[in-house]
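Re-run with default settings, no changes from the original entry. Doing this only to confirm the output is reproducible before filing.
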Amino acid sequence: MQAFARWSVRHRWWVIGAWLMLLAGLVVLSQLAGGAVHKNSFGFSGRDSQDARMVLEKEFPRAAGDSDQIVFHTETGRVTDAAVQSRMRSMFARVEQLPHVVTVTDPYASNGQAISKDGKTAFATVTFDAQANDLPEEAITAVISTAQAARTSTVQVELGGQAVQQTESQGPGLATGVGLGVAALVLLVLFGSVTAMLMPILTALVAIAAGISVNALISHVIDINTATEAIALMIALGVGVDYSLFVVSRFRGLLAEGRDPKEAAAGAVNTSGRAVLFAGALVVLALLGMLLLGVGITNGIAITSAVEVAFTMAAALTLLPAVLSLLGPRINSFRVPGRRPAGSTTPSPRLEGWTNFLRRRRWPLAIAMILVLGVLTLPVITMRLGSSDASANPPDTTTHKAYTLLAEGFGPGFNGPLVLAATLPAASDTAVLQRLADAVESDPAVGSVSPPRMSPTGTAAVLQVYPLTSPQSEETTDLVHRLRDTTIPQATAGTHVAVHVGGSTATFVDLASLLGSRLVPFIAVVVAIGFLVLLIVFRSVAIPLTAAVMNLLSIGAALGAVIVVFQFGWTGLSGGPVHFALPVMMFAIVFGLSTDYQVFLLSRIQEEWNTHHDNDRAVHDGMGRVSGIITGAAVIMIAVFCSFLLGGQRFLQEIGFGLAVAVALDAFLIRFILVPATMYILGDRNWRLPRSLNWLPRVHIEPNEIEPSPAAEVSGAVR
């Protein structure tokens, strides 16, 4: 690492030029390729809902696309009034002529099934020629604008459905701006210098821009959800600023010791840069671990987030030290009045007092923290995975308004009908379809069932089932399982008719079941990877073992907080299931970020241990030197994650809140209290390695000392 650090500083103009050329080339290439293509695929195999989709695509090709609703409502009169009816039918005809629209069902020709009993609300179903993820956005927005053009002062027109909801996904611009603003403020307080504050932010922005361009190219190859860009940006911004923060902090500390700027830049990479490399690599590995799940929605998040983290890590290790070596003491320019730039090696008196208190109260504090985290984890046993329906969308969106109108006029189940796709060995088997419809309609959780619609070949049929409960409710999930396990097998017994339960509601039920069943093996693999990496880095069994337990506690406690807020709705939010992808995503991301702090903290403690082999002194001195920086880094990351609560998208709110809570617990309870207390308890056993494992390679994150590079070697090529 030392040779690499010196090379980067010696060739700093080449490094800076290479980054500028790389960034420009990637941006141009991504634009030439047409920018990002978000496919939003929820495709997976081996589940009943996907079998239903395949039947529809084969037997009903023109009707197998996404189905959305145009909902209209009047407070004065009825929707069947001549003036309203004429206006709406004219609008339906215009929508039906739009690109990618196959049909628009006329509610006035539905024998009253699409008109509410009070005559105030009705809905027309728009069938597209492709699934929502394959439709161009302009085709969907054309339907929305054409339909809403029929609004009047007395007639309200709203639209709902998966395709329409995709157009409402807000970009991460507001959240990014807020996150950057808070990060700048924290860095300004921490460093006391405008120039020092700008370095981590500018480095992270350059890396993020390069990562976004690469991910735009990747989106032409793999399916990526619209939320993926925001999630990848959220993670990259948090870790990118943090990684650069550690390097800048160490650079300023070495300058304060009297080092030459070029030596200080190389030394910062040779010390803090090693921790960045190992921590970043572990985050990338944890993210890529989601590929083991084999689900499209998590694959996209895993790859794009890993790309962003890799770029932020590379920029912190190459671009940043090259710029720092040019700045030298000017890193402390434009000082904040009343703030004195301090080196990272200056211990904080308050932190020293805290570590002394921890040493005296190690057992009570360790037990108290474990109990607190355990209590916070308890709600996890009640976790219900699924997907929130449009009732959780921001109140001012058209999908939320359409949901409300349908729920009030027809019942919440009309917002997510189940689709029964039946295959018939022979056209003469149609008699079983009526028996099936009667059996399904007799279920107390079913409101109504549409008449069977036959395929052109007569060998397949489709029925719409409208539950009495909302798509996100537990009762609807139970209905899906009951139809598959009991009702359908009994109704089709003795025949060769195969019936599959599909539709968006059933698809999300299957996704939740699939990811839930793979969660434990996924956790085991990621924990094993983290344990092995820490075992090699610190040559200790106790450190990776306690790290694994503490990481599990922090993730469990953060998930518990998400469940209390979003599933129980204790804070006033509407209660609903936790997003089906949240647990695996949170585990991969939080495990990597938690190990980040573990590596940054313990690498400095290990450096002290290697100097004098006194465990208590090593914990005391290591904590005193880096805990302030870790705290500042955590505040920045918490602010970035919390900023995503502003977007209004429930999934991003869940992941942002969960990650913010996890980092807060990890930085302020685990790394600040539980880790040092446990290390005080274990004493010298922290650093023991069984003889049977002595064959493990020796990897040093922090060298025992930073050797000054010869002036000729460092500066000879830098003029």
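DSSP finds 24 helices and eleven strands in the chain. The longest helix spans residues 650-682.
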